[in-house]
Amino acid sequence: MVKEMRRVTLDLDALRSFVTGMDMGSFASAAEALNRSTSAVSAHLKKLEEQVGQPLLRRSGRKLELLPAGEALMSYARQLLATNDEAVMALRQLNLQGRVRLGLQEDFGEQLLSRTLARFSRVYPGVQIEVRVARNAELIGGIRSGRLDLALAWGDGQPLAHTKVLKTLPMNWIGSRQAEIHRQRPLPLILFDAPCLFRQQALAALDRAGVPWQVVMTSHSLAGIWAAVQAGLGVTVRTLAGLPTGLAAFDKDFYEDPQLPALPSLDLVLHRLETTPTAATQCLEETLLESLEVL
What pTM was estimated for this model as a whole? Predict the structure, then answer.
């Protein structure tokens, strides 16, 4: 008689600690984000390694690196957690109805939006979503005027009544991998027209560093900026969110001497219209935040 192999059921809480720790680059940060103790998160990792029978990661200096088993588990872990979270949301709001008006920056209008809408529509088919992709001033105006329920925007240092800081992202000088355009003087810039937080910070940094510059093109859309940068017409300033293939940040990972001044970081914030949102708005907010975890 053939002895049946013992079935192993992976612990979802342990998987969530594992995924969050790798995404945040620190299990201490994961513990804080998950409202658990660092020892509890460490115990989760140990439990997973015991369940799979091999180590999942190693430390390289201050960085965490996945071993082959960890890479394989990470993919399955994301799928299992997504399925679990969708099931919980569906059971909580089985017959949820309503409408949510969502605004967000162009940086997140492709990957993040499609991922959020796909997950949300599967669980809440009865909720209608109206999406507005716009620039910061328009998004903030939409919240203030009551035309938007949620707005994913860049922090301008003046939070609204219901603003939540989600994460802080560094600004980067961005250009084509194939061009040496960042070495030209005056530096050719491709920017949004004013007012623009990225434009303001870029010009201030260049002026402080004494780097001559020239705005060679302005655009009302991020797609227009990306197209011009890919064509090698100049450089722009943005975060790495939604960065198109073929473009890269001019930093030490790509160039030994970038010759460009350092830039500050920028808060990514979520503005909400109401103190107590509707159930549909709350569920869309939760789905959006879960999608942002892998940003």
Answer: 0.68
